[in-house]
Amino acid sequence: MAEEGVYHKQRVPPFLRQLLAVSGVVMYMIGTGANIAFPGVLLEQLREPDSVVQLTPEHESWIASILGLALITGIVVAPFSLQGLGRRLTNQLSCLPALGGWALMVAARGPAALLVSRSLQGFAMGLQAASAPVSIAEYSAPKHRGAFLATIAFSFATGMLVAHVFGTLLYWRTAGLACGSFYALSLILVSLTPETPPYLASKGLYAECRRSFRWFRGHDYSSEKELEVLLNSQKNQNVVTTKVSKWTHYKQIARKPEFYKPTVIMMFMFVLFQVSGMTVVPSYTVPMMEEVSGGGIESYTSMLMVDVVRFATAVLACVVVNKLNRRTVLFLGIIISVVSLFLAAILLFLRDLGHIPEKYKWIPVIPTLVYIFGKTLGILPIPWAIAGEIFPLAYRSLGSGISGMFLSIMFFVIVKTAPSSFENIGVNGTFCVYGICIAICGGFLYFLLPETKGKTLYEIECHFKGINGELKRENTCEQERMLELGKVEGG
């Protein structure tokens, strides 16, 4: 009888194969972080009197926020692309408009070209916003999935840091060329890996699914059992096909708890993601930190302080998300963010009233950096980790698209209104609004969000269906017996 070990030695360990696949998505999301943060340095350079592109304040707010509108178009297309073309081809195709957007930005001679380039980047981001968590979750073994999904947060933070460093040291056209190169790397890495096993199983391509699964996960005992569960669950699902109209089909889906419960959870997750200031801060870091520090810290220095805190915390989050429960990390991040936002707002209010001495006017920077730490630790990684885990395979593309719609709409609304919010109610008032919104979303998620750490995607699906998901294996007794005898067919 074979031991619970490796049936076929692979020259490259499964973890490294999974890491290669995830790296392609990571490179893309670094580019996405750069997309979000680039206006923070681009607009500063374009405000110079001798700039070749002259912008009005209205142009500036549209350049920062149009990504949110363009995201919607990408997210509308994403479910059809993920379901029809697959994860791999969707990831490859999404690189093309992103590369085109950066190329157009580098060559831009006026506001219109900048807006078109940002729209192309936003469309590509919309495709990847739905595709990235799904792809990473389907590439990964359960024990690595948390850390791999947390790399989305790490990638965002890295991209923001890279954009601000390049934008500070280089002319904006050169910085744009450097930022765009991450998409070329992504395209190469994604092309080196096969399609994800769950997608192949959902299409009835069972032989290809076996090969892909074993390429990613090897041939050990537990992986082979998970493979058989995946294949049998999809075979059972693919057997029953009743001809109904599309409208009836979608109505039936909408009534299923395994669809609507994850969708509602992800709506709150992505609203939380945006109202925490996740995209506002990198877009308006310089003016925001100039106000917070009261001019006591040079603006570009404070911007890099924010970036370094965000980057270091994102690295920490990769470890924390894999070690601690998802709920623990999320609510820890929410509590830290809410408390530090209110504390920063109070200190800013007291400073405006003259109760803080001039030499200590920079003190609000401390709770602001703690807020950056809190939201990067919990609010940035957990929504993306949950997005990759929570939807059942049959509705993963559709659910990701619908919940992503909330992400893109809130992106546009929050970033577009941020300048007027800073002007009309001040940074302290804006911090209070964000703190209240974070607390409200956190309250809903406390009651809605289940724990997903350490569970297979099949077990999470069973949770929402209300059935026991302890790797149920109907009709797989014979496969298990064969596994124990070491007679599983080769990959």
TrEMBL record:
Domain (Major facilitator superfamily (MFS) profile): residue spans on this chain: 19-453
Membrane-protein topology: Multi-pass membrane protein
Subcellular location: Membrane
Keywords: Glycoprotein, Membrane, Transmembrane, Transmembrane helix
Transmembrane feature ranges: 19-42, 62-82, 146-166, 172-193, 259-280, 300-322, 329-350, 362-386, 393-415, 427-449
KW Transmembrane helix (keyword) present: yes
Identification of the protein by name: Major facilitator superfamily (MFS) profile domain-containing protein
Native source species: Loxostege sticticalis
Chief place of localization: membrane
Matching InterPro entries: MFS_dom (IPR020846), MFS_sugar_transport-like (IPR005828), MFS_trans_sf (IPR036259), MFS_Trehalose_Transporter (IPR050549), Sugar/inositol_transpt (IPR003663)
Pfam families associated with the record: Sugar_tr (PF00083)
UniProt cross-references to PANTHER family, sorted A to Z: MAJOR FACILITATOR SUPERFAMILY (MFS) PROFILE DOMAIN-CONTAINING PROTEIN (PTHR48021:SF68), PTHR48021
